[in-house]
């Protein structure tokens, strides 16, 4: 396993700063966003429940992470989170929901990652910050790049019905999702 597939010990735990308190009940904007595998998606118009996990950026084997990455609360863990959703995708689908990943990385970057990690679901590129800004999702800066903080939400009928923020550790996120889907 590469170092991106495991989480180091003693990562700082992110605290709930209230940056996502406004999301539950919020309607999704009418936006078409590019996805891996071709095409685009409009999250406001999907017929099934939908899980969107937003993450800062996945690492690339052989390329160093930004300086101080492990010291930023909640930054580390994008690959383990994506792999965990991959491993639980069939269970989430059986509970009546589809999964999408979302980051600000461009589509080409995401396509390589999705293929390398064998993701069975699309990943959305919000490189232009259209959805992030429309929903007022929290962001941070690292290495001169603006990135989204890790947040997961469930959409039903075009509205956000549940929000997981902050997500920590990242690979536990599907457990929260499945518990939420079982409650509804």
UniProtKB/TrEMBL annotation:
A single MF term (Gene Ontology): thioredoxin peroxidase activity
Domain Redoxin: 24-171
UniProt xrefs under InterPro entries: Peroxiredoxin_BCP/PrxQ, Redoxin, Thioredoxin-like_sf
A Pfam family it matches: Redoxin
Record-linked Gene3D superfamilies: Glutaredoxin
One GO cellular component, as annotated: cytoplasm
Keywords, ordered alphabetically: Antioxidant, Disulfide bond, Oxidoreductase, Peroxidase, Redox-active center
Single Gene Ontology BP annotation: cellular response to oxidative stress
PANTHER family: BCPB PROTEIN (PTHR42801:SF21), THIOREDOXIN-DEPENDENT PEROXIDE REDUCTASE (PTHR42801)
Protein name (Swiss-Prot/TrEMBL): Peroxiredoxin
Originating organism: Cognatishimia activa
